[in-house]
Amino acid sequence: MNENYTSFQNNNIPERLREFLNYLLVIRGKSLNTVEGYKIDLIMFFRFLKLYKELCGKNINFSDIIINDVDDNFIRSIKLPDLYAFLSFVENRRNNTSYTRARKVAAIKSFFKYLYSKTRILYENPASDLESPKISKKNPIYLTLKESKNLLSSIDETYKHNKRDFCIITLFLNCGLRLSELCSIDISKIKGDILTIVGKGNKERTVYLNKACLTAISDYMNERNCIEVLPRDKDALFISERKRRINKRTVELIVKKYIEIAGLDKSKYTPHKLRHTAATLMYKHGNVDIRSLQKILGHENISTTQIYTHVDDEKLREAVNLNPLNE
Question: Quick one: which of 142, 138, 149 has its CA closest to 98?
């Protein structure tokens, strides 16, 4: 059983929260990453409430606040002003961005909706009128075509696991994969130029591999086939030093290493920024329409994909300059 799943079964979190997390995982089919995020946000929420309602010592460390005694009566006592007090706390004391606060609002609303409509322990839903902070849309950070090529060329053949690392960055830059999707790639899910992955929300989607990806995978497989992998991870494509499926943190460090070698800002570019790069390059240089890009990236909502239309600014400038009256 997955260790993240078993962590929902411990006695250090309220019973209702434990039930809710299992509901998300088993019934709603949410990914472990999503459920773990909800768990972290709601644990913080309950710790704040105990501090806010003066149900624990004022000088106690926040992380030491015990919440496994939160029962139905405590939950029924929570009102809308308490929710806004929590959002004020994470904004002013935790310096949470509007995006992070919006994620916490989503977790709270989902939790109380579950208690109100599924378990029916609540007579009213205090979060029904809870508003989410407005999220300002920012243009995605991405590498230019030249910078992308420099990043790939920074992987010297003398480096250990250079074929694996080259393959990882090639897939990021060509397919626009999420970090979790790349780590979860199974060899058995690669059929010719088709890669089947399980994306966000446990939704399966097809990724088409171009020539660069197929060549990188083929070159790496010569090395991969010589590795004595642990039995449970024998189907994993990318393997770590410990002979098991590579984890997200290791991939983050790999990307950071080559970003630095390429002379780029290591604090600015992450695996997710490489996903932005792939999307931007496809849209800008490949003439990929926004609907196709939505499917490639696995976005549920087209509005998420529309952040990549920022690259049209150059085309707009060119169009204005081509005006026949521009003489």
Answer: 138
Residue 168's identity, in one-letter code, is: I
Largest CA distance in the chain: 76
Nearest to 23 by CA among 117, 162, 158, 104: 117
308 catalytic, yes or no?
Answer: yes
- Residues 281 and 145: beta-carbon distance below 8 Å: yes
Is 275 a catalytic site residue? yes
Q: What is the CATH number of domain 3-119?
A: 1.10.150
Over residues 43-80, the pLDDT tens digits come to 999 999 999 999 998 889 999 999 999 999 999 999 99
Could you please state the CATH topology (level 3) that the domain comprising 145-313 is classified under: hpI Integrase; Chain A (1.10.443)
Q: Is 120 a catalytic residue?
A: no
Which phi and psi (to 5°) does residue 129 adopt? -105, 10
Catalytic hit among 178, 224, 245, 276: 178
Residue 161 catalytic? no
Instruction: Report the candidate in 204, 210, 178, 175 with the shortest Cα–Cα distance to residue 192.
Output: 210
Most confident range (mean pLDDT) of 7-21, 43-57, 133-147 is: 43-57
Residue 9: per-residue pLDDT:
60
Question: Does 284 qualify as catalytic in the annotation?
Answer: no
For the chain, the domains span 3-119, 145-313
